[in-house]
Amino acid sequence: MQTKCATTLLIAFLLFVSVQCENKNSRVDLEITDNEGKTAIFHAAQGGNVEITTLLIDHGARVDRTDKKGNSVLHDSVLYGNFGVTELFLKSGAKANLRRFTDGHTALHIACQLGRLDIVKLLVEKGGADIEIAANDGSTPLAVALRNEHIEIADYLQTKQNHTRHMGKTNQKKIEQTVKRDESRRMKDREEL
């Protein structure tokens, strides 16, 4: 019963904020926090309402905001499994590699833990999430996926890792070839002198 009451109260609050934001003469402080350090945009992220979240962003709510534990609005949208809001935050400049204070987890760690392949792909492909970033305990997103037996996510991350490493090796070879070619040219130029 308490959760239902809190949800109803949250919806009423968000509707109030949306009405105030639409009224050009009213000014609403969107950075007011609750006792956990969460602003209205956190609650919109948790609720998954893209329209209200968009309205808050359009009226100045910060997408880089963190609460007292270091959770960002992106962490919360992923934690609550809200793909649309997560996508909106990434498009609005949220940092995919922001780490929580408490454990060093990124939004990607959370998505891997929850088994959300759709959000994992979104974070990596649209948000530029680092697939090798380690949490405070040293666990990477891949390790988190494996620990939680999310094999499809682990396969996806391994494929991305292999592609990145291959591209790194390819780029390294190109750099080495360029250096050798430049050295050969310099040697040739010296011989001609």
Automatic annotation (TrEMBL):
The protein's UniProt keywords, in alphabetical order, are: ANK repeat, Repeat, Signal
Ranges for the region named Disordered are: 160-193
Superkingdom, natural source = Eukaryota
ANK repeats by residue range = 36-68, 69-101, 103-127
For whether the record's keyword set contains Transferase, the answer is: no
**Bias regions of kind Basic and acidic residues — which residues?**
173-193
Keyword Signal belongs to the record: yes
- The stretch of residues making up the signal peptide is 1-21
Tell me the InterPro entries matching this sequence.
Ankyrin_rpt (IPR002110), Ankyrin_rpt-contain_sf (IPR036770)
Q: A Pfam family name for this chain?
A: Ank_2
Q: Where do the TM regions start and end?
A: none
Bias regions of kind Basic residues — which residues? 162-172
PANTHER family from the xrefs?
ANK_REP_REGION DOMAIN-CONTAINING PROTEIN, ANKYRIN REPEAT, PH AND SEC7 DOMAIN CONTAINING PROTEIN SECG-RELATED
Q: Indicate what this protein is called per its UniProt record.
A: Ankyrin repeat domain-containing protein
Q: Which organism is it from?
A: Heterodera schachtii (Sugarbeet cyst nematode worm)
